[in-house]
Amino acid sequence: MSIDCSKVPTKSIDSVVVTTRDYEPGEISTEIADAGLGFGAWDTTNNSAIEEGYLEDNRSLCFVKQADYATKYTLKLNGTSCSYTTPEATSDRARAGLATEAITSSIVSAINSKTGSHGCTATSFGSYFTVHSSNSYTIQAVDSLGGKAFFAFKHKAQNFSDLPPDAPDGFRLKILPEPDAEGEAYHVVYNKEGGVTTGTWEETVAPGLINQLDRNTMPHLLTRKQDAQYINSDNPYGIYFEFSHAPWSAREVGDYATAPFPSFTSSINSDGQLSAIRTITSMAYFKNRLVFATDENLVFSEAGNHFRFFPTTVIQPLESDAIDIAISNNKVTPIQHMIPYEKELIMFSANQQYSCSGGEIFSAETVQVVPTTGYRIDVNVAPIRVGDKIFFCSRKRNFNTIWEYVYEGDKWRAYDITKHVPNYIEGFVHRLAGNSTQDMLFVLPRLSHEDTIGFMYIYNWAEQRDERVQSAWQKWEFAAEVLDIVLEANYLRLLTRYNEGGDVEAPTYIYYYEGMNLSYDPLAEELGHPALIDRREEVTGLGIGSSDLEEWDGRIVFQFQGRAFVGFPYEQRYVFSRLSIRDSSGTPLVGGRTQARRIILNYADTSHFVVAAEVRGRSDIRSQEFNARVIGSADNIIGEIPIAVGELTFPVMGEADRLRVHISNWSPFDAVFLSAQWEAFYSYRARRL
User: Would you give the DSSP letter of residue 507?
Assistant: First the structure.
């Protein structure tokens, strides 16, 4: 499928993406907004357009609401009075003279007889009549019953209850609010839908306005669909994607004042130039509403209708109406990221965090935003939620700090999970991804915000009874540049780029979509042990020897039980922290010398590893290889991969301050370590006398 983006403006920065609900069976839609665009409508925000819109229809609607004997009905047009008086009750024509049609016809005749004086003409429609002129005019209805019997409406009316039951199709009026009463003016139109003889007054939008959001600069939809015509060997389910405009609802009631454009829209002045450029910086779903963040505002769609940001009525506020609120705080900076969390929407700006919540019914009356904490974050990296935790990033000089944001007791707190390795995460963090099942956080860096690199960092943690018992970082290096990552349940997917030609000056790039299962390896279930080689694939007919491991075409071949697997070897490496003795409070002892003697490794389900010790200032490296083939052991069976459980004692013999101990494993066989112990001599450099 090809996507024509010629009408979709783009910027060279990240887009904001949020996945929405299913539309039809087999369809899932994702909304995409470029965070660098101005969004919205061509809006002059000039209310004079309303009056100009009404002037296009220069008619007035006149209506006899109450007929009575001996009542005078007068219509004043440009100061000229046109009157008709109904007969007395004792008159011979009394009953006929009280008919509404008769009164209307008589007033129309009086008006048309004086057209030369006031410049207007009248047309009767039975129970009502209209007055029209090609020029501007004034109109006033007067009756001898105290203003309760005869009404004239030109562009506006004081009370909706005074409107006639019948009117010309499409006739518009502005209904003014009651004096000293709450409420806003609104607009109505008479609708004879389907060509019926009578219709109804319906709330509508003021004339002369721009009511549609600019769909070209609003977020777009990328919808996954299925069709049998696309089924082939590479696409067995016939899946394809459709890129399209979203069905954003237009303003259908009110005007610029009572139903304004949402605050994420940009404005254009009378010269057609952008006068206020606004952008959508973040999107989320919260309380069955689509939420846009723009500058210091939050804009929520109508409840249950993610594409409506205008009210359905301005006569009376509804709890389901769209919500547009500004954040009020001394430290307010533009909102960059939002994360739904239980009953709260957590928001992040460059140096402030906020919480948005509401009552049981989330509405404009109940919504509230309060500041929670004031941590500085890297706004180029989107925070993520992993289980009951939120992770975000900040920069400190040339390194990155990763924070764990949790709700404890009655407030939010952040903990630096890189505190013990402050100079470990290099580069500029591009993406965070997490898995709550495996308790893993993935950190993908770049050399700059544009230049990709071939490694990423992984944080593992474990908790028991609400206590953190493991907090470990590791680094994965790849033979390719990692452009981006995404986690789908327990499956990590990577978009990678390989320089197949090897020429740095003129690289030949090939892109791959690769993945790994973080929780389950089906081959390990079949063989009884894993085959740890990168880009692993099963092959046949290689015509090589029968040993377990052989090199072939720059890769290694792993053979077992008549099956062969080919791939690239990679190193598993663990580097011990500096060995230090601590007192009962956990504080390292620094007043003496620590001379390490040996390290004892406890392993299980292990086939191979190498342990080595380096002492700074000495050229020799002490190492020992373990391959689990123990002579005389019942588990050492020819033709099977040896798997051992036990412990290995390794002499290190060096001063702890200058000692570096590491474990490595280049083989495709697993190495699992349960614990490590070390022995050392400790002597004080000085003794108090």
Answer: -
**621/605 Cα distance (integer angstroms):** 27
> 3-state secondary structure string, 363-423?
CCCCCEEEEEECCCCCCCCCCEEECCEEEEEEEECCEEEEEEEEEECCEEEEEECCCCCCC
In angstroms, rounded to a whole number, what is the distance separating the alpha carbons of residues 77 and 108? 12
Stretch 544-551: mean pLDDT? 64
Q: Which of 584, 648, 586, 20 is nearest to 283 (CA)?
A: 20
Residue 602 φ/ψ, nearest 5 degrees? -100, 120
Give the amino acid at 602: N
Q: What's the pLDDT tens digit per position in 520-531? A: 888 888 877 788
Which residues have a Cβ under 8 Å from the Cβ of 116 and sit 6 or more positions away?
Answer: none
Beta-carbon-side half-sphere exposure of residue 107 (alpha carbons within 13 Å): 38
Q: Give the H/E segment covering residue 249.
A: none
Q: State the pTM of this model.
A: 0.82
The first and second tokens of residue 183, run together, are: 């409420």
Q: Decide: 294 and 49 in contact? Cβ < 8 Å.
A: no
And the tokens for 265?
A: 């829209």
Give the type of residue at 662: H
In sequence order, the 6+-apart residues with CB closer than 8 A to the CB of 181 are none
Q: What are phi and psi of 112, to 5 degrees?
A: -70, -25
- Average pLDDT for the chain: 85
Where are the extended beta strands (E) located within 467-581?
A: 467-477, 481-488, 491-499, 509-517, 534-539, 549-552, 555-560, 563-568, 572-575
pLDDT of residue 38: 43
> What residues contact residue 679 under an 8 Å CB cut-off, 6+ apart?
596, 597, 598, 599, 600
Give the containing element (helix H, strand E) for 44: none
User: pLDDT tens digits for 263-322?
Assistant: 998 876 666 667 778 889 999 999 999 999 998 899 999 999 999 999 999 999 999 999
Tokens 């009651």 — which residue?
178
The per-residue pLDDT for 8 is 28
Q: Tell me the three state secondary structure of residue 146.
A: coil
pLDDT at site 48: 52
- pLDDT one-digit tens code per residue, 364-402: 999 999 999 999 999 999 999 999 999 999 998 889 999
Q: What is the DSSP letter of 102?
A: H
Residue at token pair 């509405």: 363
Go through the chain and tell me how many residues it has.
Answer: 689
Per-residue H/E/C for 42-91? CCCCCCHHHHHHHHCCCCEEEEECCCCCCCEEEEEECCEEEEEECCCCCC
**∠535-539-545 over CA atoms, to 5°?**
110
Could you count the other beta carbons within 10 Å of the beta carbon of residue 57?
14
Q: Which of 277, 170, 254 is nearest to 206 (CA)?
A: 254
Average pLDDT rounded to a whole number, residues 467-488: 90
CA distance 261 to 275: 15
Q: What is the pLDDT of residues 16-53, one digit of tens each?
A: 566 654 444 445 566 665 544 445 544 444 445 555 55
d(CA 258, CA 313): 9
> pLDDT digits over 305-316, tens only?
999 999 999 999
14's CB contacts (< 8 A; 6+ apart) are 35, 380
- pLDDT given at position 563: 80
Please give the average per-residue pLDDT across 246-253, as a whole number: 93
What are the residues whose beta carbons fall under 8 Å from the beta carbon of 3, sequence distance 6 or more?
A: 241, 243
Q: How many other C-beta atoms can be found within 10 angstroms of the C-beta atom of residue 93? A: 11
- Whether 278 contacts 262, CB under 8 Å: no
Q: How far apart, in whole angstroms, are the C-alpha atoms of residue 49 and residue 209?
A: 6
